[in-house]
Amino acid sequence: MPSPAPAADPHFHGHGTFDATDEAEHFGSSRSAFDFRYIAAAIRANLWLIGAIIAAALAFALVATMLQTKRYAASSTIQINDSSGRILGGQDEPSSDQENTSYDVDRFLKTQTDIIQSRGLALRVAQDLKLIGSPQFYEAQGLPAPTAGTAPDALREQAVNLLVGNLAVRLPRDSRIVTVSYVSNNPELSARIANAYAEEFIQANLDRRFDSSSYARGYLEGQLTEAKAKLEGSERALNTYARNAGIIRTGEGQVESQGGKSTVDRGSSVTGSSLAQINTATNEATARRIEAEGRWRAVSSGPLLSSPLVLQNSTVVTLLTDRARVEAELSQDRARHLEDYPSVRAKVAQLAAINQQLNSVAINVRNSVRSDYQAALGTERALQGQVTRLKNETMSEQDRAVQYNLLAREADTNRQLYEGLLERYKTLNAVAGVSLSNVSVIDKAEVPKAPSSPNLFKNLLVGLIMGVGLAALMVFFKDQFDDAIRVPEDIEAKLQLALLGVVPQSQGGDPQEALLDPKSPISEAYNSLRGSLLYSTAEGLPQIMLITSAQASEGKTTSSHAIASGFARMGKKVLLIDGDMRRPSLHKRMDLPNERGLSTLLTSHDPLASAVAKSSQDYLSLLVAGPIPPSPTELLSTVRIEEILQEAAGQFDVVMVDSPPILGLADSPLMAALVDGVIFVVEADRSRRGSLKAALRRLRAMRPILLGAVLTKFDPLKAGNRYSEYYGYDYYQYESKDKD
């Protein structure tokens, strides 16, 4: 087992002192996360209680199931669509609504299920099956038949309430199939009512559609006549004004659809169309003029033969090639002949002719570019004049078109209103016909052969869950109010103490005999505890240590002797003091006389060496309790005990004090305030009823230096298989098996 680190508790101040105001926080703290080993240990410790609670819950569920009246549930399934069909002219013509969003579909289906559960539909079912005042109906609900003097309204109200209260409508997610279930004591009646709900729901939908269309059709007929008259009047007024104002529109009467509504495109006037066309031509002419002007500026701004337009001419390219050839030949002739030589003079004449011809062609190219520019400029100016004239005409026409546009908008509005009313009227005429319902029956309800309730398996499952929950709650509260330490983790969780070591329970023998075997689990545990004490404080091993516990027989004496023997084997001079002057046991364990001891030193000024006895082990000395005094507490309240401890610290490396239990006695708290460290011994799995916390409360009131706690008599197998790591002898068993 690894050696635990010293306790790092924020409630300890200075050299391990404890703030009493934080006591509630110490004992009320809980585990920060689930400790499954602790839970398993708690279950094992309360196995009988858990079993009894679960058995009682199952028994209660079984009895409740047997006492319940058998009820039968019959279910019919219907499909609900958001569109329906009409029978027109002997043919089925589906009339589909526009595609709805998922949210709208869910809302529609939820509305339909609410209609099924409505009181209005329940009244239709009650009237159709003649359930109002029916003795069979009341008997099926487990109620007495109504008396003869009951008012009809009260009977109708009772029947509706019973139908609504025993009806169940279920709509699965992402489905249009609705299940309608009815529960009663009579299986035949349950099936009849479930089927009646499906049929009445379909009939109610058809009735609502027919009733809602009759009034609407009559109202729309009058509105349609009035809208038609307004449309005709507005169209006549529009045409009359256009004729008188001389406004001619192109594209007259073209119908466009915008946003689902029909509108008439009045087009544009002849003047406006001409202006648009001329303006477009003017823009194109301007572009051509700018291009031609750019070419002219490029040609006229520099030497003729440096312009790219001239150099791109094919004749110029040919002449330049010929001139280069003649110049090359002339250079060769001049290198061989004089200037008067005939071939030289011929080449000079030919070169002059080529230069003259090249200059003439370049001038022609430049003149051609200038002609193009002047033609483009003239065209642009002519078109700009046309644009100016048409602009003036268009501005005049727009002044006259103000009233025209007002009349046109009024005519368009009247046309949209008329077409909308006409479309709605046609739709209502179709609805007025015989409708195909958007609800269809998928499965009719059949007479159930087995009762739906009580369900033994379901009730037992509920009872099991409730039993497990109640058992967990009981174990939790029991654990909160019980400070018994069952697993090593409880030391830090419940006591807020560092775990110094875990000593396993002796397997069928005396712990003292087990300590004689260095390979025994108990010996290994105390060796690990000894290692923990070596680093229990910042200064290392405390020199004077006191071992105490809450109650008697928790292993204090065995632990103190084992720890003292361990340090003696390390070569340290150790003094073991029996501080229990009420029930001394060290002299019996070590077979020593008890005539002189601690009580003798407390009642005299004799030196320590006069009462110290040597043990059979090297470096280990013993100070027994001595004769039992009348009042040990009064002896320990004097300064003599402090002098004895200081004298022992001067002569020995380690001083161990085996003190009495804390509860009911003041001896241990008095001595705890004088030592360098206190080791608290806790017996595992011991029922305490709050005594452990009370003992620590008394001990901490003296502000001692608490080194930590030692868990003794711990049974790893009882706490769980995962705690078998505390069996130190496993290693040696494995080693011996390997050797075999």
Outline the structure in words:
The chain is of the alpha/beta class and 740 residues long. The protein folds into 4 domains: 47-68 and 454-477; 72-209; 270-435; 482-486 and 493-739, 3-Layer(aba) Sandwich (Rossmann fold), CATH 3.40.50.300. Helix content is 56%, strand content 13%. The strands form 5 sheets. It has an 8-stranded mixed beta sheet, with helices on both faces. β15 (613-614) and β16 form a beta hairpin. α5 crosses α7 (152-165) and α16 packs across α17 (556-569). The chain is flat and about 155 Å long. The two termini are 26 Å apart. Mean pLDDT is 78; it is low at 1-32, 85-99, 257-262, 726-730 and 732-740.
Tell me the radius of gyration: 57 Å
Question: What do we call the CATH homologous superfamily of the largest domain?
Answer: P-loop containing nucleotide triphosphate hydrolases
Enumerate the strands of the largest sheet in spatial order, edge to edge or round the barrel: 12-19-18-13-17-14-16-15
What does the average pLDDT come to?
78
Shape: flat
Number of contiguous helices: 25
Count up the domains. 4
Proportion of strand residues: 5-15%
Number of DSSP strand runs? 19
Can you summarize the main beta sheet?
A: 8 strands, mixed
Q: What percent of the residues sit in helical stretches (DSSP H or I)?
A: 55-70%
Query: Are there runs of 5+ residues with pLDDT below 50, and where?
Result: 1-32, 85-99, 257-262, 726-730, 732-740
C-alpha termini separation: 26 Å
CATH fold name of the largest domain: Rossmann fold
CATH class of the largest domain: Alpha Beta
SS content category: alpha/beta
CATH architecture of the largest domain: 3-Layer(aba) Sandwich
